[in-house]
Amino acid sequence: MKGWQIRCLFFLVLYTAVENVTSLEEELADSIFGNFLDPLKDLFDQKDDSNESIAKFSLRKPSQPDDDLCYIIPGKPESLASCTFNSTSKTFLVIHGWTISGMFESWVAKLVSALYERERTANVIVVDWLSSAQNHYVVAAQKTKAVGQEIARFIDWIEETTNIPLENLHLIGYSLGAHVAGFAGSHATNKVGRITGLDPAGPDFEGEHAHRRLSPDDAHFVDVLHTFTRGSLGLSIGIQQPVGHVDIYPNGGSFQPGCNLRGALEKIANLGIFAITDAVKCEHERSVHLFIDSLLNEQEAAKAYRCGSTDMFDRGMCLSCRKSRCNTVGYDISKVRKARNVQMYTKTRASMPFRVYHYQLKIHFSSKVNRSEMEPSLTVSLYGTKDEAENLELKLKEKISTNKTHSFLLVTEKDIGDLMMLKFKWEETTSGWSASNMLRMVSSWWSGDSDDTGMEVHKIRIRVGETQQKVVFCVKDPQTQSLAQEVTFVKCKGEWRTNSKRTPKRITLENH
Ligand SMILES: *[C@@H]1O[C@H](CO)[C@@H](O)[C@H](O)[C@H]1NC(C)=O
Ligand SMILES: *[C@@H]1O[C@H](CO)[C@@H](O)[C@H](O)[C@H]1NC(C)=O
Ligand SMILES: *[C@@H]1O[C@H](CO)[C@@H](O)[C@H](O)[C@H]1NC(C)=O
Ligand SMILES: *[C@@H]1O[C@H](CO)[C@@H](O)[C@H](O)[C@H]1NC(C)=O
Predict the structure, then answer these.
(1) 218 appears as a binding residue in the annotation
(2) Residue 60 is assigned to a ligand binding site
(3) What is the distance of C-alpha 503 from the center of its chain?
């Protein structure tokens, strides 16, 4: 066998292996749904507590965000005073979701603490409906309405008793708790100010009528973060459909960086099924941590952009902020209410602070030779006034063809300041292995020009999402333009026209 044949075989094998991992991941996702919903196949253990109150309202203290020290009891105004409820401040109701353990998860105290960090005089009330939430999922899901109604009665009572403006009331519900918040909002006599749904639960709510799930009707403003809307068997742990005025899908709303469902695969050997549970929790609960991040890191607020689809967003085509097309992720979101629901996207880091910088790169690839179906590996380094970000990979959403402008999304974790210079590198890869590619490679090997693609890039147009800055970059030294090596681009001279006003569509290379 010749060298290239061996290489070809190797890549074929590698490709197959990668394919297998992907399908394993899908199987894994399927088994998660199995596990998630499995307990409901068991017999119902109905506790008949129709008379008892099913929700308790614990006003937490900034100094002890983890402890339930004082309960506000509807019908007992003295409990407001004894818990030092401040009727001129904002009031938050934190509503948990489904539970297996019957205990508060660790995020509750973190969220309480972050809310007090931002709003020092606020009343942060944790709604405890653990006894109903600790049930088979389907039963817990059915109880969300009754719990919501009880919270609605609490809201009515507190409004009547303290005269607080409901505009100051903000319900924050996670998973099933998001739908509880929805029911609370829709059953309260007057409309509450805001509901934030943190990855609202999908099973039993997806596709349901707006009255039977969280919906924009439930509050003056409803904002939603979707972090685990992985569809499988028609089910998704987080609800996929938009259910608020503004629905943000970080990282497409499916898989979150740093959670690594795939990594869970390796851990299963040691930790068994808990590894999967952990991975699921990580994705689902990421919504809570994004919200906490927005409370704590106000000055590093992440932006989300309105877009028709994840795919378009991943091509960098939606980084405009005109006509409130972009918004702030989390607590400081602008309360934009449109007739139709608004879906927005953002990318994040793997940990707090989650914010990244989004760039759209528009690159025109030209060549004398007609070629298409190229899948090169493209690398970009950005150099700004504050910092630099090197060797960032441009993800291809489609194959590169000659004389076509392609748009890419690029993100950096670092704030590089104003972009001054960039370097661009093109490498033919063997990853997109196909018969036609192979043929081309062989033929180019025969003709002896194996490395030269003949492909040229003269300009790169960039739009920065976070600053809304638009810059055109030109090849620094046109004579040495060959994509076989790294090419340096600098801001074009006298090229300050904005995109919308640019007159000559075709770029004349001789000018530079
Ligand atoms: C339960 O409710 C019924 C009627 O609604 C009432 O007669 C009864 O006293 C209640 N029981 C308790 C323990 O509150
Ligand atoms: C109640 O809240 C208001 C406004 O948020 C604040 O000015 C006031 O000091 C608070 N009262 C107490 C007792 O903390
Ligand atoms: C290049 O290829 C495309 C489609 O493959 C074709 O439509 C076009 O006419 C070709 N251009 C030249 C100059 O050969
Ligand atoms: C691409 O465009 C350039 C400039 O207009 C032209 O010279 C070249 O022939 C075109 N290449 C193909 C393959 O059509």
Answers:
(1) yes
(2) no
(3) 37
